[in-house]
Amino acid sequence: MIATERPVRQRIGRAACALFAIVVTTGAGAQVTRTVEYLDHMDTDGDGRVSLAEYQAWMRYGFDHMDRNGDGVLTADELPGGKGRPVTLSEHMAKLAATFNRQDTNRDGYLDARELAAPPQK
């Protein structure tokens, strides 16, 4: 990793954490308190597991909520604390995909309730 890459990744990571906190606290329109509720809300096709597309759609809510002008870029004034480098929707979606892939410990391309409940994988 290039020396200048680390701070950029840390800022994207902080923004992603803030976005996740918004999703958790607002619940994409519904409060979620148990893992099975996350699965029920994210699993839009009702197959008992969460695909990458379902995960990204659920987790995108925080980005969309913060992107007040709807331009697909979170600028400093839209980020928590009013500072930080801009975060694009594509960067956010890539970060979500990376998180999803780390959580998918059995590598089947889906998250089940156990994988959703697991601590974040590094």
Automatic annotation (TrEMBL):
Name of one Pfam family that matches: EF-hand_5
Organism: Luteimonas terrae
Name by which UniProt lists this protein: Ca2+-binding EF-hand superfamily protein
Residue span(s) of domain EF-hand: 30-65
PROSITE patterns: EF_HAND_1, EF_HAND_2
Keywords (A to Z) from UniProt: Signal
Signal peptide bounds: 1-30
Superkingdom of this protein's organism: Bacteria
Family matches, as InterPro entries: EF-hand-dom_pair, EF_Hand_1_Ca_BS, EF_hand_dom
